[in-house]
Batch of 3 targets.
Target 1
Amino acid sequence: MSVRYQTVLLFGAPGSGKGTQGKILGNVPGFYHLSCGEVFRNLDTGSELGKVFIEYSSKGLLVPDDATVKMWHQNMHARTVLGTYKPNVDLLVLDGIPRNVAQAKLLEKHLNVLQIIHLVCRDKEDMILRLRKRALKENRVDDAKEEVIRKRWDVYEQETFPVLEYYPKTIVKEVDATGSPAKVLQHILEAVVPIQESHFKNPLR
Ligand code: ADP
């Protein structure tokens, strides 16, 4: 029988800082971070799925749902087999998935979503500026052109935002994404530490 992973979703528009915060959280014992975009970027670009990823992401579009969820599930399974992610010890922090309601439904049997951290950014232009800066540092096909970034925002507003409505309002915590990384982290920890403690024992004991 497959386990349902105890999960927190990091949710927010492109550039809202999900990856930055997820990485920090993932370094804390008892938390395990996985970014779906990162898994895609690490695929061999010569593989079938690697090619599909480049085709869609370079246009700012989502990779088709079935392929995405299948890849995600295989990846999670591999991590549990390798023992890097321990479902009985770690709270899973997911970023970048589910990206639409269809994915949320497909993930239902794999995830027990305990909390959603919604990184709220009211200034779209500020976020677009962040993405442009990131594009200069990291070699990302999806942030290289302004029109692709804007397309990613459209996709977020039309397809991803409705995911929030799919889950109960009571588990959604809004955090202002425009604060400093430390401030944003502080607010995220306020929400997730009690959840981690109520579902797991101290991982260092
Ligand atoms: P960001 O967080 O900056 O929006 P990601 O690194 O999460 O970007 O994703 C980069 C690209 O990878 C997306 O634009 C999309 O093409 C693809 N991708 C990532 N996650 C998913 C997903 N859950 N479903 C479909 N496509 C995805």
Target 2
Amino acid sequence: MTVDHATTLAEARQRIAGAPDDDALRELEREYVDKSGLVGQLLAAIPSLEPAERGAAGRAANELKQAVVIALEDRRRALLTAALDAERKGDGFDPTLPPPSVERGSLHPITQATRRLTEIFHAMGYHVLDGPEVELDWYNFEALNISKDHPARDSQDTFYCDEEGKRVLRTHTSPVQIRALEHLEPPFRAVAPGKVFRQESTDASHEHTFHQMEGIVIGKDISVAHLISAMKTLLRGIFDRELEVRLRPGYFPFVEPGFELDARCPFCTEGCGVCKRTTWIELLPCGLVHPNVLKSGGLDPDVWSGFAFGLGLSRLVMLFRGIDDVRHLLGGDQRFLEQF
Ligand code: DAH
């Protein structure tokens, strides 16, 4: 099989340049380049040529193929450019207009606070732990020195998950204290952020689901001074400056002594809306880990001691973000969430 390559190529180029669309180009590609096309036939015919002619015939066929492929690509690009140009000139396309607005998501204020705080605690050498939301009665109450008749166990407050009352939706993040004691080698520091659940009638300051962040530090000869110092470091991490703190007595079965820790209002000196004109902000409940809790976690209270605290994440986010109804937090209303 012989063809005049120059004439064939000129003809192919002319037909390609005149092809009106992609389908026509594909058709020409089949006709010239594919195995069953012209180049394919030329190559297939080579073995039947005189050995001396084979090299030249092979080269010629491949050159023809290359040239046709390039012509096809050029035409494809030209068609695409023309299509885009036409679109630009068509119905009111204005390349100077700003692009259509993009709906941007944002992190939930609780997520923002959790990330910020865990970052600070992480820098202070704390592990960041997770615990189950469906918790055993043992971890949620018993191991935390909350006796069977303690009011916190009242069915009013606790969502029970089974008839025997063995499983509950955790009512606080404190059970992670016990799980930390079981899993970490003392001495250690750990925080555990997460959701907690209480069976309450909801109103502006009560919600059945909210967030806390538990903290526990275990070591030897841990005292209230360590607790105060840790909380001051935390406050410096959040507000970038020294804030005065004070302790008031508080009762929680799993700490002894137990406290409410207040911090000087970071927003004023004379009293403002956030501190309710008192210049103090109720920051968190805390205390020294009760010996019974250490025992529940398998530690000898004569050797080990520690402090614990329970940050009310939802409450603090509300306080610092000026949110007046806790139900907004998990209400899922986009108009609320878009503000953060
Ligand atoms: N778990 C308690 C609650 O939800 C808060 C709490 C109080 C946590 C004192 C602590 C603590 O770690 O030391 O009401």
Target 3
Amino acid sequence: MRNFIFQNATTVYFGQGCVKEYLSSLIKPYTTVLLAYGGGSIKRNGVYEEITGILQAAGKNFVEFPGIMANPTYKKVQEGAKLAREKEVDLILAVGGGAVMDCSKAVSLAARYDGDIWEDFWARPGVIEGEPLPLGVIVTVAGTGSECNGGAVITNEEKKVKTGRDYPKLNPRFALMDPTYTYSVPVKQMVSGGFDILSHIMETYFSEPNEDNVSDDIMEALMKSVIRNLRAAIQNPRDYTARSNLMWDSTMGENRVIKMGKQCDFQCHNMEHQLGAYTDCNHGCGLAVLHPVYYRHIYRYGLPKFVRFAENVWGIPRKGKTDEELALAGVEALADFIKEIGLPATLQELGVTDPAGLREIADSCGISAGSYKKMTHEEILSIFQECFAGKEPSI
Ligand code: NZQ
Ligand code: ZN
């Protein structure tokens, strides 16, 4: 196993009723709360009422910061930071999914930083001075795992860059996770978030080391849990067991535990983030289109792990298959699952209309150092082209 340091500063309160039980004591030390949320789902499902009721009963001033979009922009971050400064906010409370949590993390940093935060943080990763504003999150959709990490994925629309990284100072102080809050998530978003969870785990699993390590064992269990519980939640969106498992699978995928000792790939995420920067596509849907095509390109370079994936995650029997046939059968099982749960399989289904524009997007993608096969921009372009129409790979 490679050497590592493990740290996670977020305290999680998990389970039905946790917001009612813990929120008022968690906000006690603060005076003015920035209540950050998205396009309004929390107003339709009763979550807004519950939370504002608790804030009012606790005598807190709160300032609303609504309208955080699916791919939060740097402009939105600047708007939130300005508001936080003007109103002398001392706690940000993010209520929503990855977009709201990420934007709130970025606001917490930007509100306390006088320099050019894009240039000094997102464009040139490094340590920056100053403590971010305290942040607490209330999760309403499972997927990104943003509640237990320091990642803040932000889109700079002018520069056409969508990027983020795990900066431990941005870990929320607390995360409240009530699985019943996710009951109202539309099925399309639930499966997209579910696939994002699977993607985080696969991006970590398919990387060195391949020898026996506890992270790979945990990941096989997690992948099986996501597949099983996503199927159950599609059957019954109010299945508490399935929703609880998906919610915790999501946290486990991105709370750093499974990354210990692993190199991590995240090439698909690099590609999807740039697709998002150019087309504003849905994150989980973009990943669903990319993963099978990418894996058909690289499976030979990580053959033992792809064989393990086929046998241990999908339960495919060897029955006279060569390693290569077995590995490919695992990738095809993944592609079938994507189809089964109703996610898109082509970039056209994602709304990309102009294949000529794919070169510029491909050239803008970051290259992962941890993948089984280091990509070139030409290979990324051919993956995008195969994804465009869903054609079978030629290699
Ligand atoms: O905006 P509202 O109206 O709230 O609706 C949201 C949004 O349309 C809706 N929703 C959320 N909870 C709901 C609900 N609808 C009904 N009932 C509820 N309880 O779901 C939609 C999706 O929410 P959003 O936050 O946009 O999605 P997600 O959680 O998938 O987050 C995506 C963002 O996170 C980034 C992605 O790139 C993308 O920008 N990521 C963040 C990561 C991190 N910080 O660790 C890692 C990921 O790989 C990812 O890059
Ligand atoms: Zn993701």
